[in-house]
Design goal:
Mean pLDDT: 85
Radius of gyration: 20 Å
CATH architecture: 3-Layer(aba) Sandwich
Strand order of the largest sheet: 2-3-4-8-7-6-5
Largest sheet: 7 strands, antiparallel
CATH class: Alpha Beta
Number of helices: 4
Number of domains: 1
Distance between the termini: 52 Å
Shape: globular
Number of strands: 9
Order of helices and strands: HHEEEEEEEEHEH
Low-confidence stretches: 1-26
CATH topology: Protein Transport Mog1p, Chain A
Length: about 180
């Protein structure tokens, strides 16, 4: 029995380990999700941010890559069949400094928008959204000569959810048990 015990433990561990793995698709920050756990985690990582980036839907050819949530920073990577792997990296921070980026009209309520083009062909550039308590940075590295469609798609697929909206979702989801949400 003593000799069989290590083998049994190993077999049990091997069977259970896959259940401990994380399926990255579960971590996709979906704006309309009825289960806002990922968005709440993101909001808690940058507790000053009034807005949290999320995906409103992925256009054809785009796919969710990774989500990295750390204290004071969240990073979301999106891949494109036309723009390449890591075509768009979206980062949430407590603050950012657009530097020489030019201010342009914003397409997001409550946020100032800045743009800086590093290279036109293939397109490489940075977009900043500044708002109360935070900043979202879009870092584009597009491997396509026709980047305008990809830039437009990014503007449509990446949205923002307010901290107040998240708070209401958590309270509703918990039937009022949780009242002090992000």
């Amino acid at each position: 029995m003593r000799r069989a015990a290590p083998a049994l433990l190993f077999a049990l561990a091997a069977a259970l380990l896959p259940a401990c793995g994380i399926d990255a698709t579960l971590l996709q920050p979906d704006c309309a999700s009825e289960d806002p756990d990922t968005l709440v985690l993101m909001a808690q990582a940058v507790p000053t941010a009034e807005l949290v980036p999320c995906l409103g839907g992925l256009p054809a050819g785009w796919e969710f890559g990774t989500l990295d949530v750390r204290q004071d920073r969240v990073q979301l990577v999106l891949n494109s069949d036309r723009g390449g792997d890591h075509a768009l990296t979206v980062e949430l921070r407590g603050a950012c400094h657009p530097g020489e980026a030019k201010r342009v009209p914003s397409d997001e309520a409550g946020a100032k928008r800045f743009e800086r083009v590093r290279r036109l062909r293939p397109y490489s550039g940075v977009r900043y959204y500044q708002f109360r308590g935070g900043c979202v940075i879009y870092d584009f590295e597009l491997e396509s000569e026709r980047s305008s469609a990809l830039l437009n798609e990014a503007s449509i697929m990446v949205n923002f959810v307010s901290r107040d909206d998240l708070r209401e979702r958590v309270i509703e989801q918990s039937d009022g048990v949780i009242t002090d949400a992000p």
